[in-house]
Amino acid sequence: MSVINQALKSRYIRDNFIFLIGTLLGGFLGYLFHFFVARKLTVGQYGEMQSVFALVAIAGIFTSGFSYFVIKYSSLFAARNAYKANSQFISYLNRKLFGIVAVVSLLLIASIPFVKKILHLSDIWGIVAGILAVIFSAAAVVYQETLRAWQKFFSLTIAGLAAAFSKLIFGYSFASFFKKSSPVVWALAISIAFGWLAAICFWKRAKEKSRDGAGGDWEKYISRKKIWKNAAWIFFFSLVIALVMNIDILLVKILTTPEFTGYYGALSVLGKIVLWLNFSVVSVALPRACADGHRGERLDSKIFLFSLGLMLAIGAGLILIYYNLAPMLVVFLFGEKYRAASGFLWVFGLMSLLLSLLKFEADLAFAKHDFRVSWLLLLTVFVMAAAIFRFHGTLAQVAVSVIFSLLLGYFFAVLLNFSSRKKKIVEPII
């Protein structure tokens, strides 16, 4: 017990523990969502739902870009304990975000007929719900990522759990009543709205507790002109991250049958337990790495090794479980109709481990303002797309294609970070 108490005195370990527990609970609610919904939908309809979810993730690249944008700059306010300046910065970003979201929403609405055709969807209403989900995500991301930058992981966890619980309740209700994928996508939009409102409440509460006596002029800390010079790089980075994480399921939906996509999507959902647990580790490390980057330093080596070791331990443990208990897990969560594909579950766990390791290295490069990593991620996307186009006849072929491309990307990302370890960090934005 003394060892545990000593470990919990470290804020980094304590934050990891809080966020990991929150991720487990949120993941449990998320997998209950799939557990119940998959039983109410056919394999083909479930595949449609998964493809629309992946489309939402990629269509939300501006949201993803803003998440990196917010955490990069809010980490500076957090390092200076400047709540009021950060609040003014949030107001500034929200004004900018409104115009961008309006333009993106119009483009997405115009593309609805094309998307419905290329993804072989049964109706347009899932796409409409997906567009709303993108809009709500854009509204929520500023507050959620500000909480992350300030390392308010308990508040961030509660907001995430509120979203996950509402997604489960509405998703199961819609699937039970309508028996189609498109109404279930509306549950995603509703859940994001709940998460947005919760994040606003927690940020306002944090402001009330602040003793920051400084003025609210955020431009005393950051140059308005300089931050937008780096905006294109940040959004490009977020775009390729989103593509690396989601391009496989979209290509599978385009190139194969709805049933094949349903099997692939189900195994991907289970395999990504590894990814989401490891993301909690990456999420705790990133604001520290960004804050260190603003000071011209690199992430502390002890934190790096602890994070890497924890991610490998989580991944190896779950892959071992997947290898030995795959049929039981797949049938229990998705039903007997998915048993035939269960033997590949451990491979999807390996895919998720490699993806989380790649994102960890990419985020470390991002924190050091080394945007060259974006080109390596884009290379990974091209290799993955080419491999899946060439080999998509079986689940094994697609899985090997994804694993090969992720290994290639991870190797070059590690090489990039290792080669630049002795170079002086120059902060180009402050």
Notes on the protein architecture:
This protein has 430 residues and is mainly α. It has one domain (7-419). The protein is 83% helix and 0% strand. The chain has 16 helices and no strands. It starts with a helix and ends in an 11-residue tail after the last helix.
Summarize this entry quickly.
The chain is mainly alpha-helical. The chain has one domain.
* Biggest beta sheet summary: none
Poorly predicted runs: 426-430
Fraction of residues in H or I helices: over 70%
- Average pLDDT metric: 81
Number of strands: 0
Structural class: mainly alpha
Give the N-to-C terminal Cα separation: 44 Å
Alpha-carbon Rg, integer: 21 Å
**Anisotropy-based shape:** globular
Q: So how many helices?
A: 16
Total tally of structural domains:
1
Kindly estimate the percentage of residues that lie in beta strands according to DSSP: under 5%
N-to-C order of helices and strands: HHHHHHHHHHHHHHHH
